[in-house]
Specification:
Layout (H helix, E strand, L loop, with lengths): L7 H19 L13 H7 L1 H5 L3
């Protein structure tokens, strides 16, 4: 098996994805629809089985 090391590029990529989302959750516009009527949690959970196909 190979050795899993630390990737600075990967860490920067994850930070670039995570930080704007954290800022967005703290400062959402007034009256923004959270997606409860659309079923946003179903969409977020539907991508989990696809990640298992990579193994």
């Amino acid at each position: 098996m190979g050795h899993f090391g630390f990737s600075y590029v990967g860490a920067i990529y994850l930070a670039m994805l995570t930080i704007p989302n954290l800022i967005w959750t703290k400062h959402q516009p007034a009256g923004y629809n959270t997606g409860d009527s659309f079923g946003g949690s179903d969409i977020a959970c539907s991508c989990i089985p696809a990640a298992g196909t990579l193994w």
